[in-house]
Every structure is written in C-alpha cells, then in structure tokens.
Amino acid sequence: MSYVVDNWSFDPFVLVVAVIVAVHEVGLARLARRSVPARTRRRRLRSILFYLGLALLLVAVTSPIDHWASSYFYVHMVQHLLIGFYAPILIVAGAPWLPLVHGLPVTWRRTGGRFLLLSSWSPALRRVGRVLASPWFAVLSFNAVMVCWHVPALFDAGEQHQLVHVWLMHASLFATGILFWLVVIASYPFRLKATPAFQAGAIIGTNAVMFVLAMSLSVLSSTSWYAVYAHVPGVTLSPFADQQLGAGILWVCGDFWAIPALIVVLHRAIEQEGGLADAVDRIFHRTPTNGLRGIGPTP
Length: 299
Known about the structure:
Elements: H1 2-5, H2 13-32, H3 37-62, H4 64-69, H5 73-94, H6 97-102, H7 106-118, H8 122-132, H9 135-148, H10 152-160, H11 162-184, H12 196-217, H13 239-273, H14 276-283
Helix pairs in contact: 2-3, 3-5, 5-11, 5-13, 7-8, 9-11, 9-12, 10-11, 12-13, 13-14
C-alpha cells in the first residue's frame, strides 16, 4: 500500500492544469449562452473526457509512477504510455479547443487572430499549420519521437537532466501524441483528413513499431541498454530483467489502445461504405464488391 500512497510530489504542472481547467470552464459557460441546450450537454460530456486526460497527465508526473520511473525502466514505460497514448486519446476525444479559445479574454482573441491572419508572419504560420495538420507528419513524427527517445544516449540524457526529461522527452511524446490521435479521433472543430484506410494503416503501423521496439529491448538483446539503470541503490531487479519487463509492458499495453482504435475505425469505414465487405475492400485498396450485388442474373 505504501507504494501507492507514498512518494507523491507537487509539480508546477498542477498549477498549469488548474489554469487550463478554469479557462475551459469559462469558455464552456460563454458558449452555453449562445448554444442550444443539446449542444451544451454534448460539450459538457466531452469535457469529462478532457478532464480525465488531464488527470492522467497529473498521475504520470506527480504520482509514485514518476518517482519509481527513475529506478525502474518498466515503470518509465508505463509513464510513456500514459503521456504519449492514453492521456492524448482522452484529451482529443474531449475536443477542448473551442472552449479554451472562448475562455480567453476577447482582446487576447482579437490580437491573436490579427497576428495569425494579418501579420507578416501569417504566410509562414499557415505553412507550418499545414505541415502540422498533415496526417503523414502526425504519424511519422509520433513514431520517430517514440523510437528516438529509446535510443540509449538520448534516454540516458533525459534521465540525467530534468529539463531534457520534462521539456523535451515528455513534451514531445505528448505533443506528437495529440497530433497522432487527431488523425484517428474526430475532435471538433478539427475534421478528420485521413481516410479510414489511412487511419487503420496508421494504427497497425504504429503498433508494429512498438512491437519491434519491444522485441529489440528484450528478445533481440542480451544486456541492458541504459546506463542510468545499471547501478540504482535499493533496486533488486536486475537491469536487463527490468528492461525485459518494460518491453513486455510496451508490447502488451499496445494492444489496449490499438485494438479498440482499430474497431472504431473499422466501424466508421462500415458506416461510410455501407457494408463490412466493402469497407475491408476499401482498406486494402481493392475494388468494392458491394456485397452480393452484380453476382448472378439481374431479376
């Protein structure tokens, strides 16, 4: 029980989350005054998902998970999954973007809008926005960030330097995680730009990358990769056994997000195509058969 109740810490991120929640609530209230009750209820339900995502982030950085991640690689993998996968899923599903914008003072919104649309920086910002909104960029950047931060030199640097750990490692995992899930999950006012076929490929491909990474850390290795876990006082688990356990978590927990996401994408494809066979044909880039239509004589 002490592992659960002890070693909680106060992180300045708690204050950031508190401010974000306050701004979001102000935005919800302002939008409610100009919306029909049904839309207001939908926003409130989505806000629950958003707040759960923020709560997961807080658990990842303030709970004993953060404390034990410095001693155990497998706990660090749990932390990475929370920051890069599960918290972004809930936040994107919560669609907090409009309430957050409307929660800001009007003068800030007008100033920001003029800067984005009318300043000399506008063309460059639009180009950056198009790159960030690209499904290919989202998928490739997320996988690249996940793989790169498990390169021993970069991982050790993140463990040895707190600024690198928080503002580069964790921040990049979270930011690219948001971009990745915006490809798969509808999050108003952002529209899904990728087809169900692309979304399914992104999920399967990303899960395959996590599988290869997990195999590289365990089956394809015979020693621990990370010097920071080689001599940790009070840790009885050997560094390589710890690494193998972390690889197993990375592999097995991947199915916990990949399979439900793939089911959602397949269901979406069925709705768009009108049938399971047509959806599968479309995903594999085959000419849709339209079920049994076209087979046999026309009555």
